[in-house]
Design a protein that fits this description.
This protein is of the alpha+beta class. It is built from four helices and ten strands; from the N terminus they run ββαβαβββββββαα. The strands form four sheets. A four-stranded antiparallel β-sheet has the order 3-10-5-7, covered by helices on one side. A two-stranded antiparallel ribbon has the order 1-2. A two-stranded antiparallel ribbon has the order 4-8. A hairpin with a 4-residue loop joins strand 1 and strand 2. The protein is elongated. The two termini are 48 Å apart.
Length: 202
Amino acid sequence: MGNTPKIIIRDASSDFVKFTLSNTCLSVANAVRRVAIAEVPTVAIDLVEIVENSSVLCDEFIAHRLGLVPLVSDSASDYMLPSEYVGEDEAKINVHLNLAVKCSSDHTLDVTTNHLICADAKFLPVNFHPIDSDSNKQEPPGVLIVKLRKNQELVVKCIARKGIGKDHAKWSPVATAVYKCEPELYLNEELTNKLTGILLTS
């Protein structure tokens, strides 16, 4: 029988844990990471209704891009998985988002996640900065969805739901489950005892 792995918890809270895994190999550490990204629930856009799309991208392409948009929230635990909920209150499982953009200028318009309007302010796309047409302030760009030319339009209705990465990759929190190797350093005491003052300062 091999050595039993040891775990030392370094830091832990309701949504964060940092621990040291020792007495095992890298494959076990990677297996723990893969289980975490497959089983930890997150919220992602699951259903997309295309109301109007005159862009160069087809409906399926845009729906796929929207599904991969990371949504940031501390309230994912307040919602239930659709497979576990048996009630009729859709607010328990659905988060509604809308996007309605039309290009009216001769310049190409970048449609980003900043144009997504969420019904629940607790859920926001990553790097979200609301578009303010009356402001000339330069805000950090959101995630690019599509580019529109003059008179092109995109109107979509989205429903985000809670899920796990085992069901679909869009629910994988791949950026939040990582590991690194900590080297074990050993000093050759027999050799260090032979060092002179000159060697130590050179």
